[in-house]
Amino acid sequence: MEPFKYPDLPSEDYIRIIELLPGEPADEIKFNLTVELRTHCKESYDAISYVWGDKRKLRSIVCCNKAMKITENLYSALETIRAKHPGKSTRLWADAISIDQENIQEKNHQVKNMGLVYRNAGLVHIWLGADSDGIAKDTFRLVQEYNTLLHLPKLFSPGPDTSTVDELSAYLLEVNKLGPLLRLPWFKRVWVVQEVALARNARLHWGQASLDFAEIVELACYYSRNPHVTKWLGGPNDELLFLRLLFQCVYRTYGRTALWGDPQLKWFFKGPKGPSKHAVHSGLFLDILIISKVLLASDARDHIYAFLGNLLARDDRGKLLIEPDYGKTEQQISLDLTEALLQCTREAPYVLCFVQHSSVDDVTGASGPSWLHNWNNDGTDRKLIFTIGNIGLNYEAGGRVDSLQFKIQENRILLTPGLIFDELCWTSEILKSGDLALDLNGQDENSVQPQQPYIQVLLDEVTLAYQQYRGAERTWDPVQHKNDFSYTLVTGYNNKEDISQKSHASIFNAYCHFLEIRRAEPQLPADYVMSSKQAKKARRFERDTQNCDGRRLGILKSGKLALIPKFAQNGDACAILAGMATPFILRRADANLHGEGYHHLVGEAYVRGVMRGELAVNLDEVKMDIRLI
């Protein structure tokens, strides 16, 4: 049979629609491919969200009476959808068929408008793959039954009910089926996030079993809101936590989740006291990109292109921050995007905060400029690291955003005004948030001393170093030192305004008391010996130590404490950059290689007494040109 050849599309406003022809299960897949104006076919087709699978395992199909090959996984998806519509043709869109993958220009145009394809689809079919172990039907039933138990009284109360969590114990023997579901490849791919976020309705298909996607997201939201639910769902589950994070930080920013028809998701989004502080389309495009780093893509450039359907991917004038171009290298795309982000008022103060290095070579610029983001992930470390600087926190260490200026020279030098105000003289070991957890099972046994909690060990270590480096002339206030230490660990509680010293002391004391109870009586619930109010304070401190994970504590020559990047070292400079949200740790570049006055960007930092722009007041008078390479 003659192979199918794609005719050119009339313009980028046209798409190809698959007309999947009816057939018996044993029949080969046959379909026609029509070219239609995108605006004329809204909701007249369904889109498929799937993982391509092994490109070496191909199946033959018939397209317009000509031969075509597609991956086995897409073939199975088409078979399943055909079986659900016996005797009828089905209108579909699937990227591997609807886009000529060999035509780079067409691919650029179609990827740019991919969001519109999924937004305009009547339904998005999520194909998870074959149900090899025969557990899909039971797993989907389990998800529905969990949700039913948790929101039975929703007709009589404004939010989800958690008083019935004990009934969930009957399902504990089955809870291990959730793991295989959430570990399926679809949940790890970067492109599928936008595909489902833009859907007006999305349905999971695992073998012959089906489930509304909103159901699994609802379960993830229940899981993260209540420790009792977490317990009855089998304990900590990274996959459910990540799905909840996707809902909060990515799905909702597309402004489509209200169409999913799940009343409980609307409650999670608004909260019991009215609309959430996280409005639709609030946040940063940078937030979405940093989350995407833990996902997989066969083409590194798709870590950026896969989210261009989000309104946050547009600048102050409503223009796309970057146009898809598969003819450019990954580094050139990162450079183009960084320049665009620095010109966007919403994103600019945080651009350098999101630079997270994975090796010392990244810091010294061996693989490219140290101030450029690497949005791809090599697969060796997929742990999500939270940024210190982010929108909504009102950090203005470098002053207002309108003071930001920059020049990019020779595609490798970022020139910006700033002030080097201090230098590192001591750094701790790399911190792990698990060591600061109230649940002792989460702590590293090598970090915990037999007689005292890890936080006390860390405080003693910092105090000893501080006394060594502070100098005889500097006054010593142990109470203030302890306050600065604990306040730095929670980076100011990620709060818009500084919390009073009295309130902070109350929160930190509750945390320490909780730890004492846990160590004395590990099996005794803290609620038995401390009020729920105090326990809530302790949990707040624990939660906000997440920014410590993968970072170090540092002491500056001035005596200030700082939370610093893991690759920071003694002798590194601490600087503010005009218009940037946080201070930064910089490393002087080798003058023999680069000349005088150049620095490598090590990463963002938290320095109490600097975050609200205290040093930026007179920046115009003392600023210097900072050259980052």
From TrEMBL:
<dbReference type="Pfam" id="PF06985">
    <property type="entry name" value="HET"/>
</dbReference>
<protein>
    <submittedName>
        <fullName>Heterokaryon incompatibility protein-domain-containing protein</fullName>
    </submittedName>
</protein>
<dbReference type="Pfam" id="PF26639">
    <property type="entry name" value="Het-6_barrel"/>
</dbReference>
<dbReference type="InterPro" id="IPR010730">
    <property type="entry name" value="HET"/>
</dbReference>
<dbReference type="InterPro" id="IPR052895">
    <property type="entry name" value="HetReg/Transcr_Mod"/>
</dbReference>
<feature type="domain" description="Heterokaryon incompatibility">
    <location>
        <begin position="45"/>
        <end position="195"/>
    </location>
</feature>
